[in-house]
Amino acid sequence: MLTRRHLLSGLAAASALTATGAARAADGRRLAITIDDFNIADGALMDGAARHRAVLEALDAAGIKAVGLVAGKYVDNPTGAARLAAWAEAGHLIGNHTYAHSYYGGANPGDLGADIDRCAPLIAPYATTRPLFRFPYLAEGRTAETRDRMRAVLADRGLHNAHVTVDASDWYVDQRLRERLDKDPGADVAPYGDFLVRHLLDRAVFYDGLARDVLGRSPPHTLLIHHTLATALFLPKVLQGFRDAGWTLIDAETAFADPVFQSQPDIAPAANSLIWQLAKADGRFEARLRSPGEDGPYEKPAMDALGL
């Protein structure tokens, strides 16, 4: 006979199982892809059209929608506009990365608003454009005063900071790859892909661990990579590498809906990954932070040792 006590016990047990399942789901590591710059010029091994097609095919095969943070100077021409249109037609988001891709972390940062406004009409026509903005070099201001002025520029335009949570040096791997191809056009490129996967996974694990300690949870992460030859060649391997390591790939729009991306850490200079900034503002994690958070020289010894 089912009594009220039995019913309540059953509901409590079901609730506990549901809560456990939710906790396990929340504990899972999630990653969205964000791609900066959109400098899709012709180069070694692939012309710009082939590079862009390879990136789109990799994202489509993975079943995810990324966001492209576009520097206007790279798409301010018919070829660039056509490639951006193909990006939007595939359902990927578009955000503003300024026109000139200048550095706004110096003593005389210049007119950020004008740089944003010059890019805006180039990306406005596309249905997937969103009010997302990413600072070039992730540099938001050298002092608290300039940082707040930069943030006000975004607020005045209704833009949201498209923060990176997982920063990396994919651009440096690409630089080394292209330097090798300049010297030896027939070089084996596979080791560069293997290194890139290891590097990105290493940085993702680092920032996820830091996030868990700072936030008490694993947020949906946004990985920063660039539209380069290395990305075109190795993105399928990168995405599979993350899946094999237990990460769930998610859409960029899903990631940016998390409240953590509304954070405005009170640090100066304001730069690096959002997780780095939050850890810096917290004050307990200085021993785990390097400045800059990521840079080519950190990866140089390992690549040198491997002959890459």
Beta-strand fraction estimate: 5-15%
Query: How many E-type strands?
Result: 7
How many strands, what sense, and barrel or not for the largest sheet?
7 strands, parallel
Low-confidence stretches: 1-26
Percent helix range: 40-55%
Distance between the termini: 72 Å
**What would you call the shape?**
globular
Mean residue pLDDT:
92
Rounded radius of gyration (Å): 21 Å
**Structural classification:** alpha/beta
Q: What is the N-to-C succession of helices and strands?
A: HEHEHEHEHEHHEHEHHH
Q: Give the helix tally.
A: 11
Q: Outline of this structure?
A:
With 308 residues, this protein is of the alpha/beta class.
Give me the secondary-structure topology.
Layout: H1 4-27, E1 30-37, H2 48-62, E2 67-70, H3 78-89, E3 93-96, H4 112-123, E4 129-133, H5 144-156, E5 160-161, H6 170-183, H7 190-215, E6 221-226, H8 229-244, E7 248-249, H9 252-256, H10 274-282, H11 296-305
Parallel strand pairs: 1-2, 1-6, 1-7, 2-3, 3-4, 4-5
Helix pairs in contact: 2-8, 6-7, 7-8, 7-10
Question: What does this molecule look like?
Answer:
51% of the residues lie in helices and 10% in strands. It contains eleven helices and seven strands. The chain has helices at 4-27, 48-62, 78-89, 112-123, 144-156, 170-183, 190-215, 229-244, 252-256, 274-282, 296-305, and strands at residues 30-37, 67-70, 93-96, 129-133, 160-161, 221-226, 248-249. It is globular and about 50 Å long. It starts with a helix and ends with a helix. Mean pLDDT is 92; it is low at 1-26.
